[in-house]
Here is the input.
Amino acid sequence: MLNFIIRIDFEGLIEKEDISLNINHKKISQTLKVNTYQDETIFLRHRGSDNDMCLSNLNGQKYFVYTSIFEEDRKIIRTKLKIKQGVIISDAELMMALYLQHGKNGFDIMANGFIFILLDYVKEKVFAFRDHIGIRNICYYMNGSSIYLSSSFKNLYDLKNKDFTLNITKIENFLNFNDSSTSNTFINEINKVPPSYLLQFHNNKIEISPYLRYKLKKNLIPPDAQVFELKELLKKSILIDKNGNYKKIGFLFSGGLDSSTIISFYRSFKKTKQDMFSFSAQYKNLSKDVLNLIDESEFQNEINKYDDVNDIFFNGEDESTLSNIDFYLEIVGQPFFFPNLYLSNKAFSLAYENDVSLVMNGNDGDTVVSHGYEYLFELFLSLRWFRLYKEILSTSRVRKQSKKFIFKQIILNQLSFGSFINKSAQKKHLKGITSSNHSKAIEVQSLLANYYGIEERYPFYNKEVIEYCLSVSPHLKNKDGYSRYILREAIKGIVPEKIRKRVKKANLAHALCLNFVNKDYKIIEDSLRKPNLVIKNIINTDELRNAWDNLKKNPRKYATRSTIPSKIFSFIVMNRWLDNFNKNN
Here is the structure.
């Protein structure tokens, strides 16, 4: 539960400060105590333990450190620094020692989310590191000789007496689904340190540079050994609470391959007694034809039937993101694209009600492991068409879809001039993992989890797991008609066969479109009636209005292979945020 804001000014202008944390928080307890540190150079306000910060004088050098790390990495750092068992050392002192002994290369051992901020008083420099995938967030804003660093956009956006301007280019990219940036925000003056990057502040200048890259290598060990290693890495990344520090463990559980892997591994290999809670959405009141496309209960029941799993269901039809958009914007602070955020919100609220403070999330296991379509595409570009035909034939049989349809979806729809330049399946896999979608989703979901006082973990985003999946032999990612073949082999005997061999997933766009009509009707109508002028200069709102009129008549038609629901969602979120921006400025 990371929440901090720091102001640093080497000109000694910090005497009295009025910056505050945005603690829009449901859980009121001692753990939410706000701590403050201040001297003539730095002002820090944070929610958390003093274990996260330290002030140190070493050989004539004066440092201030603020950090956030996970338990798993703490043990790894102590081992690397050869710190004896029983020696008490704070996280801030631990990270400072790692950096001072090994420089930025020392952070290569960090497998999970972290931030590390170091202030060098003598050299008048600031260093701020963000983890490999963006599990921890660092936003920054420079005002005169001061730099502000924070865990959230909203903490900076809420600064008093600051003149902020709209980032029109980002707004345009967002509305046109072309926003791939990991660094900018919808305010020109506020930016983010990208994942795997380092911010340096010196002489009133900011420099952003990468400090970490994923290691790419060829995996030359036999297929069975590759499967075994993946299984062991998954166990290591999932079984994080080996000492039983948490009495209750929660799981966001859809019934899909990723969430099923996490909950199944935990219940199979945990060595401590903990209550396990699964939080799942079900849709029971839809018409039969739609229910068949969205209902996951038959897969959820494969795991929830076990006595050691406390299964908590909620009706997905009762929830909506747009109808509660002001609540989400208050927490996130800026526009976001997360149509199904209502599922996470309901799960977190139920976890809060059941006093579950740690929740496991299977976000983007499909991207990390890879469906293996890059391999099929590589076969096509390399003219290995006989092998490609065999794989498409197997896929056709497993999925019960025509070979022509599969070829179109996997090959033809991916063709572009640039695709001929780089044929490597591995590098295409890397591109998917390093896209901005991951850090954006984590940021939004983490802010929501923080609201309920919940700590989230993302086992598939463990750096060791990511690097291993990048190195897996491409032909093991899609084989015998099964995507993510190596994962299916690694979870054999652990995840129920019905789930392990499933090849289709629920299409939640059906619920989204129905919610538009049944729950979000008023906000959509009102917004289309009064679109913000900024938006009117970017997109054709009359066309969007016509598309909405058509969707109202036949929601099911727009739930598959249509961009209209996404356009409506993005428009409403942006329109609402811009209206609030205009009111407050």
